[in-house]
Amino acid sequence: MANESGIGKQTVVGAFVVGGLALALGAIIFFGNVSLFSKSSRAVIVFQDSVSGLSVGAPVTFRGVRVGSVDSLTLRYDPASLHAYIPVNISLDPKQVHMMQEAGSSSHGLDLTDAIAHGLRAEQNVQSFVTGTVNINLDFYPGSPAVLHPHVSDLTEIPTHVSAIQKIKESLQDLPLKELSDNANEAVLSIREVAQKLDVDVPPLVASLRQSSQDSQETLRAATRAINDLQGKLDTTLVNMDRLMRTSNAQLEARGADLHQTLSSATNATDQARKTLESVQGMLSPRSSDRDNLDSALRDIAAAAASLRGFASDVERNPQLLLMGRQR
Predict the structure, then answer these.
(1) Per-residue pLDDT tens over the stretch 243-284
(2) Which residue, 165, 220, 225, 226, is most buried by CB atoms nearer than 10 A?
(3) H-type alpha helices, the chain
């Protein structure tokens, strides 16, 4: 009975161990992405820049199609050249890559060496900008130089290609962020100083402009009042001048009539005197000196009479000649 009990216990323990091993193997297969029934191709990718975000188990894709995964990441340092290398071992699943064959030709698997010769390259690709996770993407870049590191690993090496994201990261790393930050701080300080100066200088300037505006308005109002007063005085002056002109015209007309009458009387007197002198001339001898003097006097009197007659005609036509005189 004791032997049968011991054998039963050993059976239970053995079954428990076998079950644990089965669970462990299932976990390895499930979580470790291990395929027991397919033969995978292994290769290495050697990076010399940062592989931050890349981890074991990260997918290896070809234009978005998963074709494998990352097996390991190690660091190799060469003290002779002072260079650090990061070999990333990957496994490629042949079931994910199907080679297209012509009719009648024999099928064969993926030839990495031939694909590398035709431009197959590997690059780091950011999966998420939030988490920073990175995977490896494979693609063909014909003409891209194939830089190999045969002393780093014995596996078939897929050359690297700098991705657009890596170029942006390198460009950002090359930026003088400290200088840009210092310049930005100086610019902010300068703007702050200008703002403070404006706070100090602008209010007095605004007050001065406001006072100047008020003074200008007051000057304009004073000028308007002066113009209105001057306009009233000019109206009064014009009225007075018009009245004076009318009065002057009336006086000139009255004086013109009197002067005309005077000139007419003088003309009549001159005619009478001429007639008298003519009578006297008839009494005098033509050869006497008195006769010569009398002839000269008659000529002067005739000329004076003609002048008075012309002046009387001019005054009669324009009575203002008495005030303004003749315009030369």
Answers:
(1) 888 887 777 677 667 777 777 777 787 777 777 767 666 655
(2) 165
(3) 2-31, 112-117, 164-174, 177-283, 289-317, 321-324
